[in-house]
Amino acid sequence: MTYVLKSKNKSLELSKPIIMGILNATPDSFSDGGQFNTYETACQHADEMIAHGAQIIDIGGESTRPGAPDVSLEEELARVIPVIEHVSKKDVWISIDTSKPEVMKQAVEAGAHLINDVRALQEPGALEVAASLNVPVCLMHMQGTPRTMQTAPKYQDVIEDIAVFFEQRIKACIDAGIKREHIILDPGFGFGKTLEHNLTILKNQKAFHRFDLPVLIGLSRKSMFKHLLNRDVEERLAGSLAGAMISAQKGAHIIRVHDVAETVDVLTVVDVCQE
Ligand code: 7PJ
């Protein structure tokens, strides 16, 4: 089944996995925090990821690393809107990584095509605003909140518990007037998950294809590679690429990464060997 995402006057074919490049416009993100937090460096990094083959640029102004402080609306807008305006001049999709309805609204007005919400539109007003904006939405699973999620994650069955969450959120979206063809699902690696949970999801991600919706996978540089490989954040490229390769082979539609050029190579090799 080939999905085609449509937003504004653009469409994005998901017949093979595509790359979402991560642009953190935050001063405190865990893996590249502080590196891209000025307007110029953020724009430069976006341009580079586009040149390397990213088809979506995911722009976020709120750090969701465990224990990160809350960011005010004004601060989040000041971080992301100028960068969105810059990237919107390019031929690429823009995703806004936020949970705040007002940021969703202003970001889409400034040029964003897709809403990526780690809280799956559960903040007050988010469902309604997303429905009115009429753009695709990525619903990510998280257990707990960014502040507490890694304390003691527990599941009866991590795959089935996430599937129940997806079912409920898909229904909430449809009831709010969001089109089914606008929904993307993401199991949320590292968001209230132990290493064992993350590995179970990596291996069994095809289970989420039961919803007949595109699946987004984000495991780039995450702490699962610290726990599995004992690697610091700047040493997680090989692990991240292996995760991207497995996800591509298991049929993931969108892969969210920091290292665009390297992941493009991996996906090209996977693609030519597809049976
Ligand atoms: C994810 C995300 C993810 C989606 C972050 C990081 C932490 N959005 N935002 N999926 N992770 N959809 O960049 O590693 O896994 S923030």
From TrEMBL:
Enzyme class, first EC level, given as a word: transferase
SUPFAM superfamilies listed in its UniProt record: Dihydropteroate synthetase-like
A biological-process GO annotation: folic acid biosynthetic process
EC numbers, comma separated: 2.5.1.15
Pathway(s) served: Cofactor biosynthesis; tetrahydrofolate biosynthesis; 7,8-dihydrofolate from 2-amino-4-hydroxy-6-hydroxymethyl-7,8-dihydropteridine diphosphate and 4-aminobenzoate: step 1/2
Catalytic activity field: (7,8-dihydropterin-6-yl)methyl diphosphate + 4-aminobenzoate = 7,8-dihydropteroate + diphosphate
Purpose: Catalyzes the condensation of para-aminobenzoate (pABA) with 6-hydroxymethyl-7,8-dihydropterin diphosphate (DHPt-PP) to form 7,8-dihydropteroate (H2Pte), the immediate precursor of folate derivatives.
Protein name, as recorded: Dihydropteroate synthase
